[in-house]
Amino acid sequence: MTELLAVITITLLAVISPGPDFAMVTRNSLLLSRRAGVLTALGIGLGVLVHVAYTLLGLGLLIQQSLWLFNVIKLAGAAYLVYLGLKMLRSQPVGDAPEAAAAPLSDRAALRTGFLTNALNPKTTVFMVSLFLQVVQPQTPLAVQLGYGAFISLAHIAWFSLVALCFSAGAVRGRLLAARHWIDRAFGGLLVGFGVLLALSRGSR
């Protein structure tokens, strides 16, 4: 029971902390649609399962011990965030019509964006490996560990779906869509900032 409570508490604190996942879901919900935001949240949850899988297979320990491998993951994640951010920074005004639509995003693209944003995030790597090495006991049955992984994934989906619902609400979107290109640029700047900080961070894990 103590282990379960620790997993739940640490997961919830990690999920609600601001980061690239939050920025991406907020941006897609606010500027595109509720559907795009929720699918991005679903993609994030699926990305979490990647971290769960390699951690349970024992590869998480390898990543933690291998500086070069960790740095490869870190730089890949940083490059992806900078790439997304630069695309948003190039956003241009779409005219004076407040209801002019932003560039559409297919369901698959929204899902893929959320998935890659999380799967390439080394912060999630550190969180998952640390959680399973320091909190979850070695004698914990595999079925229970799989349950922990499912809970962590579902917690991400639930939280970021809630974020998507809030930021896609009509009252919020109606006031902000007129300045959508500035909002897009602001989120682009955030993602570039996350990527640069990630790339420049030292190899501490």
TrEMBL record:
This is LysE family transporter. The keyword Transcription does not apply. The chain crosses the membrane at residues 39-61, 68-86, 148-170, 182-200. The keyword Transmembrane helix applies. InterPro entries: LeuE-type. It comes from Comamonas koreensis. It is a multi-pass membrane protein. Pfam families: LysE. Keywords: Cell membrane, Membrane, Transmembrane, Transmembrane helix. GO terms for cellular component: plasma membrane. One of its GO terms (molecular function) is amino acid transmembrane transporter activity. It comes from the Bacteria. It is found in: Cell membrane.
